[in-house]
């Protein structure tokens, strides 16, 4: 269950076990990750080069401060190339035991230093990189100030069972996405509720179940209601098995998106077009199998196979793809590791991803 992990990546938490910072979290950690990605869907090709820097700084046994910055260059056949920063992200995580369980809080802030005020040609490229069927590292470059507080509580209810629940609020500040336009875009706020359970099946095997529900506010452009996103819910089932030198992980996920209420544009100051119901974001299913094995001291290799299914929407056809990937970890020296990775996507569209993460423990 993805409830209480203290991952420094800025992504969702990764573990429901009631715990404080582990020995893995305590050193100061610096990661630098250049990545190249390319996708082709029909005749359209889109590519992106990114560099990501991650920093985590522990403050005692209960607090972890994390920061992330990214720069990218993206290009597509339908738009102009765009080079710039993504918004920086800063977060703080806190965990402590409360009775038989534990509580964790997290505050993530997106600092608006990314590229905004795009030209029409750059906006066309961002429409490609931000497609939900792709997974570009920087999908849309800059936005407004983002503040996301998150609170989670987990407690063991049996010797091998932990349950937990939590909530997160998402504040999204306004910004100007398009150059030479007087309209400010206000994305609206969001609320997320989540819960689940972890079960220790045996000393080597574990099973977890997640459920999440997200509700989003109305986005406004130029003071006019433009988009009321549909709500979303997801269910994720995970199984893990760990032996002395290897580990196997299986996951299945379904995420449903409701229709959105869209007002495409404004004819005049007093004559907005009527809103219509449209399916903008595809509901999706995902199956993943991952196998990892140590191949010596300080070295390991991981192979994963993933199937993804995206339902059709009012703007995209149905998509089915498979992803095959490999990752490795190589200990170069104490406190220094290299983590190369690569994957290939094939099916209704095609893609290639490759990169190298360099980790330092200071």
SSE diagram, text form:
Layout: E1 29-41, E2 44-59, E3 63-76, E4 82-85, E5 88-98, E6 101-111, H1 120-129, E7 146-158, E8 161-172, E9 185-186, E10 190-200, E11 205-216, E12 219-221, E13 224-228, E14 232-242, E15 246-257, E16 260-262, E17 266-268, E18 271-272, E19 276-278, E20 284-296, E21 299-310, E22 319-333, E23 336-347, E24 350-361
Antiparallel strand pairs: 1-2, 1-24, 2-3, 3-4, 3-5, 5-6, 6-7, 7-8, 8-10, 9-12, 10-11, 11-14, 12-13, 13-16, 14-15, 15-20, 16-19, 17-18, 20-21, 21-22, 22-23, 23-24
Query: Regions with pLDDT < 50 over 5+ consecutive residues?
Result: 1-20
Q: Please work out how many helical segments DSSP would assign.
A: 1
Helix content bin: under 10%
Going by helix content, strand content and strand pairing, the class is: mainly beta
Based on CA inertia axes, which overall geometry fits? Answer: globular
How many β strands by DSSP? 24
Span of the ends, CA to CA: 30 Å
Oligomer: single chain
The H-and-E topology, N to C, reads as EEEEEEHEEEEEEEEEEEEEEEEEE
The major sheet is characterized as: 16 strands, antiparallel, barrel
Strand arrangement across the biggest beta sheet? 1-2-3-5-6-7-8-10-11-14-15-20-21-22-23-24
Spatial extent as radius of gyration:
21 Å
Give the amount of beta strand, in percent. Answer: over 45%
Mean pLDDT: 89
Written description of the protein model:
The protein has 362 residues and is an all-beta fold. 3% of the residues lie in helices and 62% in strands. The chain has 1 helix and 24 strands. It has one helix at residues 120-129; strands spanning 29-41, 44-59, 63-76, 82-85, 88-98, 101-111, 146-158, 161-172, 185-186, 190-200, 205-216, 219-221, 224-228, 232-242, 246-257, 260-262, 266-268, 271-272, 276-278, 284-296, 299-310, 319-333, 336-347, 350-361. The strands form 3 sheets. A 16-stranded antiparallel β-barrel has the order 1-2-3-5-6-7-8-10-11-14-15-20-21-22-23-24. Strands 9-12-13-16-19 form a 5-stranded antiparallel beta sheet, with no helix packed on it. A two-stranded antiparallel ribbon has the order 17-18.
């Amino acid at each position: 269950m993805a409830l209480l992990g203290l991952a420094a990546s800025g992504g969702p938490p990764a573990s429901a076990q009631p715990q404080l910072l582990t020995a893995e979290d305590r050193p100061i950690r610096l990661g630098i990750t250049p990545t190249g990605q390319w996708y082709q869907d029909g005749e359209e090709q889109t590519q992106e080069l990114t560099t990501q820097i991650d920093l985590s700084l522990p403050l005692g046994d209960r607090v972890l401060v994390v920061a992330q910055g990214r720069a990218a260059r993206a290009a597509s056949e339908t738009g102009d190339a765009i080079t710039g920063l993504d918004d920086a992200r800063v977060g703080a995580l806190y965990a402590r035991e409360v009775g038989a369980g534990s509580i964790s809080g997290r505050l993530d802030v997106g600092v608006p230093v990314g590229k905004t005020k795009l030209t029409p040609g750059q906006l066309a490229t961002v429409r490609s990189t931000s497609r939900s069927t792709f997974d570009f590292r920087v999908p849309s470059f800059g936005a407004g100030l983002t503040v996301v507080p998150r609170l989670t509580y987990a407690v063991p209810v049996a010797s091998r069972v932990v349950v937990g629940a939590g909530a997160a609020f998402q504040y999204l500040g306004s910004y100007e996405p398009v150059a030479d336009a007087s309209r400010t875009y206000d994305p609206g706020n969001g609320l997320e509720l989540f819960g689940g359970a972890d079960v220790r099946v045996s000393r080597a095997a574990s099973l977890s179940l997640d459920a999440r529900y997200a509700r989003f506010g109305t986005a406004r452009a130029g003071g006019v209601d433009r988009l009321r996103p549909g709500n979303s819910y997801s269910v994720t089932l995970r199984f893990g098995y760990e032996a002395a030198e290897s580990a196997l992980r299986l996951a299945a996920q379904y995420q449903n998106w409701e229709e959105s209420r869209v007002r495409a544009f404004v004819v005049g100051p007093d004559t907005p077009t009527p809103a219509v119901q449209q399916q903008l974001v595809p509901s999706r299913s995902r199956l993943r199998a991952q196998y990892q094995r140590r191949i010596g001291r300080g070295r390991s290799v991981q192979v994963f196979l993933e199937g993804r299914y995206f339902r059709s929407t009012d703007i995209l056809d149905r998509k089915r793809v498979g992803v095959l990937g490999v990752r490795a970890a190589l200990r170069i020296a104490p406190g220094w590791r290299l983590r190369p990775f690569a994957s290939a996507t094939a099916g209704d569209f095609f893609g290639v991803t490759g990169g190298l993460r360099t980790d330092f423990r200071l």
